[in-house]
Design goal:
The protein has about 280 residues and is α+β, with helices and mostly antiparallel strands. It folds into 2 domains: about 130 residues, Roll (Diaminopimelate Epimerase, Chain A, domain 1), CATH 3.10.310; about 130 residues, Diaminopimelate Epimerase, Chain A, domain 1, CATH 3.10.310. The chain contains 4 helices and 17 strands. Strand 11 and strand 12 form a beta hairpin.
Length: about 280
Amino acid sequence: MIINYIKMHGLKNDFIIIDARTKKIFLNKKNIKKISDRKKGLGCDQVVIIEKPKKKKTSAFIKFYNADGSITKACGNATRCVAFLLMKEYKTKKIALETESTLLNAFLAKNNQVSVDIGKAYFKWKQIPLKRKININKINFNVDSYIKPALVNVGNPHIIFFMKNLKKINLKKVGPKIEKNHLFPERINVNFAKILKNNKIELRVWERGVGITKACGTGASATAVAAIKNKLINKRICYIHMDGGKLKIEYKKNGHIVMTGPTKTIKKGILNNYF
């Protein structure tokens, strides 16, 4: 069986996308890790599978796999990439997609950018989730954050540290320690943010199951929500600047979060050598 793939990225957050709507494709952890390997494989942050929709009025069901083979319930930039592909295929400017966590509505924005409504943010300890109810200020993460770290779940769990100087953070050292802290039973994505002028935020991310990434859509969304709730910025629209580029994040009054940014196709090919 020939298995085709498309490699795309959203702000250099890159994905191998496989269309399994017409034929069933089973990937195990070994397959995922082999495909994702940047030295021996195709190299990517996540492998994404497009399957037939399970609900009416949706166009596809999307599965996301981290580079280490683990499953993740959401990925904002990957969703935008898949949305762009399917909107082009169906010749439409809006589309509804299913994921493990929720139903997502996407639409084509200005300059061929893609917007996705990723739903609402959640803040309670069981929704993150945490191992137990605890005052987060009592945990020493060895991070020089000037307010208490924010915990936000936007389909994926995130912890956000707001800092004056991001250059002080050794992301490779600190990221995995916080990700695997016993407090987080499902592990956690780790974000380090700096508030800039004019409702802009600089962000660096350590993604669980992946490591350092050039951009993270759910991380940008969680950071924007945390900044707005803590009154660090004064508007509901802000721009998150990451190593791979910027995302526009809107935190609507109804609680929904909309992210907007570019997508790009890198290459297409056949996957058979990775099985």
